[in-house]
Each structure stands twice: as C-alpha cells, then as structure tokens.
C-alpha cells in the first residue's frame, strides 16, 4: 500500500504550523499575536488562513468556553517528512534522504530527527500512515 498523501502546506501555512509546533493549541488571536505582525496580516487574514488550513486538513478546530481553538492534524515530523519526500521526488533523488541535515534545527530535537529519518527511509511496506 502506498503512503497516505498529506496536504502540502504553503510557505505561509508552514509559518503558522511552526507556531503550533512550538506552542501547542492556539486561538486565532494567539496566532495573530505570534506571527501576524511579522507576516503583515490583519486579524481577519489570520482567521481566513486558519480556516483554509482547516479545509485542507492541516488544522482542526474546537470550541473551548466559546472560543475557537485550533490544533494541528498531523505531527510536525509527518508534515516535514512529506515535504522532504516531495522535494526528493522533484529532484529525482534515488536512495535515502538525509534527515541528519536538520541536526541544527530550532524546531526538531534529536528524537524528532530520528523519527524523521525512520519515516523518510522506511520501505514502502513499512510506510503506512
């Protein structure tokens, strides 16, 4: 069976996902406070992006005491692995992809890199989502 294809986030959606990966579940206001300014987004833009990401299957939303709170659908290793596989296919790379290249990442710890390496280099029969 081939691996389940994950939705591919855009560059700005990756900025949003990084906020969730660092801080956990967030409201639209919290996302706006963390990254809206640096991206030049209004609160309305932030909410629109979050809803589009929910439609794409990147985020889920639930109500907590009357406030919409968003969370990621896939763990960061799955999303990053999907992006790396896509890049590898685009560059026609045969063989293992080097997850160790991310050892200096502020976003990935040693356990994440090990999990990413395992996901990237799994044989097709092992690579089921």
What is the tally of helical segments?
Answer: 5
What is the rounded Rg?
16 Å
Shape: elongated
Show unreliable segments: none
Sequence of strands across the biggest β-sheet: 1-3-2
Average pLDDT, to the nearest integer?
A: 84
Q: Name the CATH superfamily classification of the largest domain.
A: Winged helix-like DNA-binding domain superfamily/Winged helix DNA-binding domain
Return the CATH class of the largest domain: Mainly Alpha
Biggest sheet record: 3 strands, antiparallel
Strand content is: 5-15%
Q: Note the run of SSEs as H and E.
A: HEHHEEHH
Structural class, from helix and strand content? mainly alpha
Q: Give the second-level CATH assignment, the architecture of the largest domain.
A: Orthogonal Bundle
Domain count: the total is 2
Identify the quaternary structure here.
single chain
Number of strands: 3
- Fill in the CATH topology of the largest domain: Arc Repressor Mutant, subunit A
Distance between the termini: 10 Å
Percent range of helical residues: 40-55%
Family: Belongs to the BlaI transcriptional regulatory family.
InterPro entries: BlaI_family, WH-like_DNA-bd_sf, WH_DNA-bd_sf
Pfam family, one: Penicillinase_R
Protein name: Putative transcriptional regulator
């Amino acid at each position: 069976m081939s691996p389940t294809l994950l939705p591919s986030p855009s560059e700005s959606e990756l900025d949003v996902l990084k906020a969730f990966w660092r801080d956990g579940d967030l409201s639209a206001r919290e996302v706006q406070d963390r990254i809206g300014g640096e991206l030049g987004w209004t609160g309305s833009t932030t909410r629109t992006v979050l809803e589009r990401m929910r439609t794409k299957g990147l985020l889920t939303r639930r109500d907590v005491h009357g406030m919409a709170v968003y969370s990621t659908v896939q763990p960061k290793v799955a999303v990053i692995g999907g992006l790396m596989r896509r890049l590898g296919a685009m560059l026609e790379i045969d063989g293992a992809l080097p997850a160790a290249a991310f050892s200096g990442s502020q976003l990935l710890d040693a356990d994440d890199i090990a999990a990413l390496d395992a996901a990237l280099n799994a044989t097709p029969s092992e690579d089921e989502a």
